[in-house]
Specification:
It contains 11 helices and 7 strands. It has one domain: 3-Layer(aba) Sandwich (Rossmann fold). 44% of the residues lie in helices and 15% in strands. The protein has a 7-stranded mixed β-sheet, with helices on both faces. Residues 21-259 form the AB hydrolase-1 domain.
């Protein structure tokens, strides 16, 4: 490979177990957003964390505008990590656009993965009436891009509050704002355009892996109607409605997030054992 993948994506490996579980952040975030959740899996799993190129402690020199102009570029990085670590049957946990990145990776190399866990996923953020409502009009997203160009700090403050949508957890909005502000604005702008104008609706019926959708309440980024749309079109899926508000339950409601993931994985394991007897 062109660069050391572990260095490029700042890959971190923790845990005492052998079964791999891979955590993928959402837009504009690095692996530290999983700190409240990933620890709960270290006793039983091989926990793998990483940063997208341009985020966190990744190798910024590896950033390529053309490669990362589509989600395929980010999915390829996930596959590179899987190859480098010789993963097989990994559980992929993705937040927001990280869910779609994992889904794309699983379609290209399904043997690397055993299941997908999607937190606040959306296959398309744009409205396409009358059949699909992703939550945003094109003009709104263009406005978002324009604000990033003209006043990045102001955008970071506003968007962090929009994402969390939870007055009870102001510290989460502050954490997100800090992460946005620590990212190169040009890289963040490129990722935003790649993320918010992607359309992966046609990929959903092709997914072969069992998939859990964790749907938050009052999530303006990935509304309930989007989670239900995905649940209807993914061949083997389960949707769980969370008490958590907003778009970042792994940060605002880690205990509920951990409990629902564990519950789902235990269910899959019992079904697997049941199928063998």
């Amino acid at each position: 490979m062109e660069r050391n993948v572990v260095v490029r994506n700042n890959v971190t490996i923790k845990g005492k177990g052998t079964k791999p579980i891979l955590f993928a952040p959402g837009f504009g975030c690095d692996q530290s957003v999983w700190s409240r959740v990933s620890k709960s899996f270290e006793e039983d799993y091989r926990v793998i964390l990483f940063d997208y190129v341009g985020m966190g402690k990744s190798d910024i020199k590896a950033f390529d505008y053309e490669k990362y102009s589509t989600l395929n570029g980010y999915a390829q990085d996930v596959l590179d990590i899987c190859e480098e670590l010789a993963l097989k049957d990994a559980i992929f946990v993705g937040h927001s656009v990280g869910s779609m990145i994992g889904m794309i990776a699983s379609l290209r190399k399904p043997d690397y993965f055993s299941s997908l866990i999607m937190i606040g996923p959306s296959p398309c953020y744009l409205n396409h009436p009358p059949d699909y409502f992703g939550g945003f009009e094109k003009e709104e997203l263009f406005g978002l891009m324009d604000m990033m160009d003209k006043n990045y700090i102001g955008w970071a403050n506003s968007f962090a509050s929009t994402i969390t949508n939870d007055a009870e957890h102001p510290e989460v909005a502050e954490e997100l704002e800090d992460r946005f502000c620590s990212t190169d604005p040009v890289v963040a702008r490129n990722f935003a355009e790649t993320c918010f104008f992607a359309d992966n609706r046609e990929d959903l019926p092709r997914v072969t892996l069992p998939t859990l959708i964790l749907q938050c309440s009052e999530d303006v980024i990935a509304p309930t109607v989007v989670g239900e749309y995905m649940n209807q079109r993914l061949p083997v899926s389960t949707i769980r409605y969370m008490e958590a508000r907003g778009h970042c339950p792994h940060m605002s409601h880690p205990d509920e997030t951990v409990a629902l993931i564990h519950e789902y994985l235990e269910k899959l394991e019992s079904e697997k054992i049941g199928g063998l007897t």
